[in-house]
């Protein structure tokens, strides 16, 4: 075991864990940031999504050794991202969340989508919805929240 440096929400950490420890467990169990969720552990559900730089990654599929020296944002640091407030407000206005378990992953994914595509096509929105699993079936509300957030950020 060796120490590995990672940056999470702007804070540098030296993590003592095996190189193959999933980033998800580093974030949750070692750093105590429990907003990032475990769903499938196989890269399929999106509950564990975090941002690496500005790109969504599945932290259950990222080993500590792969994360060395990189900078991540979890839902706890999301508010500091430019344009995050548009997504957060849209989520509140559309009353998206039910149990909330999947929502951190969705929010980070949607924020990244709107950064790349301020006016996402219906196909892109559906792909985003299909890439994440919400057991509570909040998809229609997420769909509306994406459009609301896009509109308030200057898209349509
Ligand atoms: S827990 Fe990582 S994708 Fe499901
Ligand atoms: S809000 Fe419950 S799993 Fe999505």
UniProtKB/TrEMBL annotation:
<protein>
    <submittedName>
        <fullName>(2Fe-2S)-binding protein</fullName>
    </submittedName>
</protein>
<dbReference type="GO" id="GO:0051537">
    <property type="term" value="F:2 iron, 2 sulfur cluster binding"/>
</dbReference>
<dbReference type="GO" id="GO:0046872">
    <property type="term" value="F:metal ion binding"/>
</dbReference>
<keyword id="KW-0411">Iron-sulfur</keyword>
<dbReference type="InterPro" id="IPR012675">
    <property type="entry name" value="Beta-grasp_dom_sf"/>
</dbReference>
<dbReference type="InterPro" id="IPR036010">
    <property type="entry name" value="2Fe-2S_ferredoxin-like_sf"/>
</dbReference>
<feature type="domain" description="2Fe-2S ferredoxin-type">
    <location>
        <begin position="2"/>
        <end position="78"/>
    </location>
</feature>
<dbReference type="InterPro" id="IPR036884">
    <property type="entry name" value="2Fe-2S-bd_dom_sf"/>
</dbReference>
<dbReference type="GO" id="GO:0016491">
    <property type="term" value="F:oxidoreductase activity"/>
</dbReference>
<dbReference type="InterPro" id="IPR006058">
    <property type="entry name" value="2Fe2S_fd_BS"/>
</dbReference>
<dbReference type="InterPro" id="IPR001041">
    <property type="entry name" value="2Fe-2S_ferredoxin-type"/>
</dbReference>
<keyword id="KW-0408">Iron</keyword>
<dbReference type="Pfam" id="PF00111">
    <property type="entry name" value="Fer2"/>
</dbReference>
<dbReference type="Pfam" id="PF01799">
    <property type="entry name" value="Fer2_2"/>
</dbReference>
<keyword id="KW-0560">Oxidoreductase</keyword>
<dbReference type="InterPro" id="IPR051452">
    <property type="entry name" value="Diverse_Oxidoreductases"/>
</dbReference>
<dbReference type="InterPro" id="IPR002888">
    <property type="entry name" value="2Fe-2S-bd"/>
</dbReference>
<keyword id="KW-0001">2Fe-2S</keyword>
<keyword id="KW-0479">Metal-binding</keyword>
């Amino acid at each position: 075991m060796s120490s590995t440096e990672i940056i999470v929400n702007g804070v540098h950490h030296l993590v003592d864990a095996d190189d193959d420890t999933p980033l998800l467990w580093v974030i949750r169990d070692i750093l105590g940031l429990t907003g990032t969720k475990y769903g499938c552990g196989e890269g399929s559900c999106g509950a564990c999504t975090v941002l690496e730089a500005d790109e969504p990654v599945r932290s259950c599929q990222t080993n500590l050794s792969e994360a060395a020296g990189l900078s991540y944002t979890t839902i706890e640091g999301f508010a500091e991202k430019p344009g995050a407030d548009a997504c957060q407000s849209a989520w509140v206005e559309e009353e998206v969340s039910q149990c909330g378990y999947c929502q951190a992953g969705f929010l980070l994914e949607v924020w990244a989508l709107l950064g790349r595509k301020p006016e996402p096509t219906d196909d892109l929105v559906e792909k985003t919805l299909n890439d994440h699993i919400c057991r509570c079936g909040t998809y229609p509300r997420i769909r509306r929240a994406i459009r609301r957030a896009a509109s308030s950020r200057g898209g349509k």
